[in-house]
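[DERIVE STRUCTURE TOKENS]
===
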Amino acid sequence: MSFAEKIILVKAIKNEIISFPAFRYRKLRDLLAFCEDPRDVDVVLKAVTALCEVFTDIIPSYRIRELGDKTTPKDEENFGEDNKASAKKKPDV
């Protein structure tokens, strides 16, 4: 594969990941594979730059759980449903 083809492929993979990060996160392995090429240093630099762009785009949108936070995503989903169900129940008088 030529230098130009590799650069085009790196850019395409980067754009795929950024456009649909939840579904295309496995493409990160492809970018990492370009980082391991000892013959093309320029391709490695472009791949590392693409990885940096991907991470700076994706990471701010993910919530990192704090150490004291013991809720799980499943608990958070059910929290709203439990409140709705309890609100519909009428107390017996």
Observations:
- The CA atoms of residues 37 and 44 lie 7 Å apart.
- The helical segments are 3-19, 21-24, 28-35, 41-58, 73-88.
